C-alpha cells in the first residue's frame, strides 16, 4: 500500500500537537510517516517531537511561516501521497482511508479535504455537541454513516487538512511563500490546481475536529493576526488581479471560478511555484 506523508508545521503548544498525534496513531490504518517542521518553538515542543515514532523533525531557527514550512516538509517527504495537517486538529476513525479513497476515485481529482469545525462555511459543521475526544469521535462515526459516499466539488478547500498526490506538486509546485506567515496560501494552491485541470473534492462523510488558528494566534496575537491576514489578502489580490479591496476579500470572499476561467491555460512560468 502507498505511503502517505503527513506534514505538520508546529510552533509551541506541545500539548496540542500531542493530542493531534495521539489521534493519528489511534485512528489511521494505512501506512504513514509524519514530518514535523518546527518554526522555532521556544518551549519543549521539539523535545516532544523527537519522541514520536515514524517521524522526521525539521528545526527552523526562525519562524519561516506556514507555506515555507509545508514546502520543507514536502521536499523531505517519501510518500506518493502528501497530507498537510494542522497540529490543532483531532482526526477520527478511518479519516485517511476515506480521504484516500475519494482522491483515487477520479484520476483528475487533485485535492481532497474533510468536513470540520472553525473553518470556512463550505466545510464547516454546526451540529457538533461538545468537544471532548469521545464526543468528537462519536460525532464523526455517526456522520460517516449518515453521509456515506457523499461529497461535492467545492470552489476551494481550507489548508488545515488537504490530501493530494506528489504528482500534483510535480505539476504545479509547492505553496507560495509570499503569503507569510499564513492565510491565502491554501486559496492560491487550490486555484493553481484547478487551472491545471485538477478538481477539488469535499468529503462529507469524513470529519476531523479543528480548533482553529492555534499556532498563528499564539505566535502573534489576535489583532496582529487579523492585520496580517488583510496584508495577505492584498498580496492575493495583486497576484490574481482581483477587482476587490483586501478588506472585501478578507471579509466577504471572492469568486475562484472567475479566476480559473480567466486563467484557463496552465502556464508553468506563471502558475507553478518551484520547490
UniProtKB/TrEMBL annotation:
Q: Which Pfam family is an annotated match for this chain, by its short name? A: Glycos_transf_2
Give residue ranges for domain Glycosyltransferase 2-like: 5-169
Q: Which InterPro entries match?
A: Glyco_trans_2-like, Nucleotide-diphossugar_trans
The organism's place on the tree of life at top rank: Bacteria
Name of the protein? Glycosyltransferase family 2 protein
Print the organism lineage.
Bacteria, Bacillati, Bacillota, Bacilli, Bacillales
